[in-house]
Amino acid sequence: MRRLGQHFLFDPSILRRIIDASGLKAGDTVVEIGPGHGRLTRLIAEKAGRVIAIELDPFFVKRLRDELASFKNIEIVEMDALRYPYNELGPFRVISNIPYYITTPIIFKLLESKDLISMTLTLQKEVARRIVATPGSKDYGVLSIMVQYRAIPEIKFFIPRGAFRPVPEVDSAVIHMEIRKTPVRASDEELFKRIVKRAFSRRRKTLLNSLKGLFKGMDINSVLKACEIDPARRPESLGIEEFIKIAEKVRDYL
Length: 254
Fold this sequence. Notes:
This protein is of the alpha/beta class.
């Protein structure tokens, strides 16, 4: 049965590979989003100190509470994962086969959490490739930069669509994202994000043309030259550090 856009994994060997890829340690606090039938939840709970399983579907909430009642370290939370107060948890990991329709917003939401250690997620293969993409590749964009700004992502393995029930229209990948211990930070992160999003909203244009008009009265050409970045370059050719350099220089001009 498909509920709320979810596709479920039942193969215990694949589920154990996901846990192995997560770096889960005994005693860790783990968040699972969209636990569904609870197969992965059980395996996580055998090792973790605490499991918070966030499920929106009342059908599965009741089933999970009945079938996992013997696990004293599992908390079933009925709510939208995008509204959960992650900053109240203390250090935590995320291990989840998340519903595909909330993939990008939930990743961005989790990356805002100050105590996040890592995320190990089953995603659409195409999304996973965008996350790990490097400058100059066709998959490189806002998602690549925003994840890599905060974390080090790595695709661990691929899962064929036939392993899921119901069978999705795409293949999947398990990706592990370890939060950087010593991140490179922009002084004004909102400004940095604004510049990146604007640049890639017009990715076929030169950097000069894509950023032109973003800041009223500012000569973007002068900003880019002051950063020693060729204004004729395309947004997808710039690395994170270069976007940070632009944001710092813009901040000086504002």
